[in-house]
Amino acid sequence: MSATERTLSIIKPDAVGCNEVGAILSKFEEAGLTILALKMQRLSKEQAEEFYDIHKEKPFFAEIVEFMTSGPVVIQVLEGENAIAKNREVMGATNPDEAAAGTIREEFGKSIGENAVHGSDGPETAEKEVAFFFKESELLERTR
Prior knowledge:
The protein is an alpha+beta fold. Helices cover 38% and strands 19% of the residues. It contains seven helices and four strands, in the order E-H-H-E-H-H-E-H-H-E-H.
């Protein structure tokens, strides 16, 4: 059963730094996802630590916080039928070497750590992550 969902997507500092934002956004739209909100910002250490809090006990936590604060990111809310699964399909496997041809990570990812994009992994996570970066009033439904 399909449902219209919202999910969070972040274009990470590696892809922003390589000027790949437009190409990545095009992939989301070509997959039938609608961008409801979009902004560029530089995450503070505190924001990155809070956002990735679920990983705080893992050995890569300090590394991901350092990486996500190393340059600007582009954060967007995507909407569409089964948007969470569709976004993850468009992103590809976490390891770019294992990502399917034509996926974002296969085309733009450099390593497991520098893999171009982040996407929510489920409905609860998506709701929490969207609210972390956007107020409800910032999510703009398409009227045309």
